[in-house]
Design goal:
Layout (H helix, E strand, L loop, with lengths): L1 H4 L2 E3 L18 E5 L16 E10 L5 E9 L5 E5 L12 H10 L17 H6 L3 E6 L15 H15 L4 E10 L1 H11 L5 E7 L5 H6 L8 H6 L8 E3 L1 H7 L5 H4 L12 E6 L6 H10 L5 E6 L3 H5 L2 H15 L12 E5 L7 E6 L7 E8 L6 E2 L7 E6 L6 E7 L4 E5 L2 E9 L5 E9 L5 E2 L1 E2 L6 H7 L7 E2 L2 E6 L31 E6 L3 E5 L4 E7 L21 E6 L6 E7 L2
Parallel strand pairs: 5-6, 5-7, 7-8, 8-10, 10-11, 11-12
Antiparallel strand pairs: 1-9, 2-3, 3-4, 4-6, 12-13, 14-15, 14-29, 16-28, 17-27, 18-26, 19-25, 19-28, 19-29, 20-21, 20-24, 20-27, 22-23
Helix pairs in contact: 4-5
């Protein structure tokens, strides 16, 4: 039934040309790349000899053949292997698109060898430390057989089969790990849930974990801009699944979308998870997976940058190697003494704090505190206003928002999950698309922000002024369509509400309804005199998450009314650290 619900369309043609990377052409065989070799002047020289097995055929359980590249140390010693599973092409790390993207972000050339899959581990480093790297083309990608699926449990089954094939090769120790960011992280959740016997550890950094909630129907809104861009990244000889068309056909949660949620309760392998507060595409999904996965051996590191500069940072790679050395090489290196959580606190003025240790997220020192909205003063107060008063705005006007703020008289730290609980009314409409943003303001009331990439020049300023939100952090955000307000009782907690998205409940004339909305996790320091501002809006306050992605246009008309005070105490719940 699930297969019947999927929507497949003709795939983009795969030419094997240089636009897909230097080694994109189909050319099965084995060669040894000598130490010192460079793929090009912009790439890192190889530190050791590397055996490059190209376009190796692997047959999956349903007899579909996929092709993989294997890069391994040129020694007689067996090696554990790291798998980088994604649909972007085995050689995409050396493509003009990837090189241009990294250059735009300010990442210096020469850091990577070009042998890495886009967003995956660099064989130049890992082979030098006794690891092999496997870069597969999943089904339907490039020259692999079958039809491509997107963000699906099928990928977990396919990668399970690949892992078990790799484990019995004569050059492999039998230990397999996975690493990578974005799509490569999402694939790790699906694969680990299939419990392949030879999967020893995973390292997901910054990835989705529920395609319905994180990508195509965020907050119950059909925001398809990134899904439409993503499908242009697929290329192969058969068909590909189209998540954007599926969202248009199936706007409510159903079996198709449930199949695109990993079985977190089955993820039991050791996991080194990396997240940030600032990635408007990946933050919520990464923290969700961290919370729900069943592994008793899981570590979380929260950084303050964008995922690619963080993933390829020298110190972070060394830290990751300690993790893999422990679980793929079984070295007794003391990794278990690493704090289970290392979190960041944003200052937005150059004083960010990193690698703060804790045993949980949020840390045990955090207490959830309610700040009540006051429609009269537009303040956030610790006590509900005595009188009932509404704040409202025209949903079709500019700027279509209402905001509330609080000033702190002493240093205040917040780390954890914010949420809003509001009493709202739609006048002149039967629904509301609502967007939320928590901003940090300085003592003079100016909004503070943080670039997450090395490039902070004029062009990056322009690019991120009203979009490309993963590159400039403007604050914790969330969204909800009022008719999708029904909570999922199984998933909802007091700290993190979750919505079922399985039915539509329109608003009647004059009806006031209660909504709870999860906002992305935060780690913020407020110095004396600084302020927190909550913005409620009928428009997307951050713009599209990525460059060259269409922004979402809300389906809003009429007036949005936020009720506050007696009997309808709307509030913002914040995770405040206590002494």
């Amino acid at each position: 039934m699930i297969q019947a619900e999927k929507v497949f369309v003709a795939n983009n043609a795969y030419t094997g040309g240089p636009e897909h990377g230097i080694s994109a052409a189909f050319n099965p065989g084995v060669q040894t790349l000598p130490a010192g070799r460079q793929l090009g002047p912009m790439f890192r020289p190889l530190p050791v000899d590397i055996v490059f097995e190209k376009d190796v055929a692997v047959v999956l359980r349903d007899q579909v053949t996929i092709y993989v590249d294997i890069l391994r140390p040129a020694t007689t010693e067996r090696a554990p292997v790291l798998v980088a599973w994604s649909p972007y092409g085995k050689s995409q790390g050396s493509s003009p698109g990837a090189l241009g993207l990294f250059a735009m972000l300010g990442m210096k050339p020469g850091r990577l060898s070009g042998l890495e899959k886009f967003e995956g581990p660099d064989p130049a480093y890992w082979c030098a430390h006794g690891y092999a790297v496997c870069n597969p083309d999943p089904r339907g990608v490039a020259y692999s057989d079958g039809d491509s699926v997107m963000f699906d449990r099928q990928e977990g089954q396919d990668c399970h089969d690949l892992i078990e094939w790799l484990a019995v090769q004569d050059w492999c120790t039998g230990k397999v790990g996975m690493s990578g960011t974005s799509y490569l992280a999402n694939a790790q959740w699906f694969t680990a849930a299939e419990q392949p016997p030879h999967l020893a550890a995973i390292n997901p950094e910054e990835g989705l974990s529920d395609i319905y909630r994180d990508l195509v129907m965020r907050g119950g809104m059909p925001d398809l801009g990134f899904a439409e861009r993503l499908r242009r990244s697929y290329a192969g000889k058969n068909k590909r699944e189209d998540n954007a068309m599926e969202a248009e056909r199936y706007p409510l949660m159903n079996a198709l979308w449930e199949n695109k949620i990993p079985a977190f309760e089955k993820i039991t392998v050791p996991a080194y998870v990396v997240a940030s507060y600032s990635n408007t595409l990946h933050t919520v999904g990464t923290f969700r997976a961290w919370r729900r996965m069943a592994s008793s051996q899981k570590w979380l590191r929260i950084h303050n940058a964008q995922e690619w500069p963080d993933y390829y940072d020298d110190a972070n790679i060394e830290d990751l190697r300690r993790f893999f050395d422990r679980y793929l090489k079984e070295e007794d290196n003391g990794w278990e003494t690493t704090p289970r959580v290392r979190y960041a606190l944003h200052d937005f003025k150059g004083g960010d704090r990193l690698n703060l240790p804790a045993e949980a997220f949020p840390p045990e020192t955090v207490a959830y505190t309610r700040y009540y909205l006051d429609g009269a003063s537009r303040a956030l107060t610790l006590q509900p206003p005595a009188n009932s008063l509404a704040a409202e705005y025209s949903a079709e006007a500019d700027p279509a928002l209402a905001s509330f703020s609080v000033r702190f008289d002493r240093e205040t730290t917040m780390v954890g999950y914010p949420k809003v609980c509001l009493w709202v009314e739609a006048r002149g409409s039967d629904d509301m698309d609502l967007f939320f943003l928590i901003q940090k303001l300085d003592a003079q009331g100016s909004a503070l922000q943080h670039f997450t990439v090395p490039n902070q020049g004029p062009r990056m300023q322009d690019l991120t002024e009203r979009g490309a939100s993963i590159l400039r952090y403007k604050g914790s955000n969330g969204r909800l369509r009022a008719s999708a307000r029904r909570l999922d009782e199984m998933l909802t907690t007091d700290a993190v509400p979750a919505h079922s998205f399985d039915q539509v409940e329109k608003l009647a004339v004059g009806e006031v309804v209660k909504i709870e909305v999860d906002l992305s996790p935060i780690g913020l320091i407020f110095h004396p005199g600084e302020q927190l501002r909550l913005v409620v809006s009928g428009r997307n306050l951050l713009g599209p998450m990525m460059p060259m992605v269409d922004d979402y246009t809300p389906a809003n008309t009429g007036q949005h009314v936020i009720h506050t005070g007696a009997g309808r105490s709307s509030y913002l719940q914040l995770p405040v650290a206590v002494a």
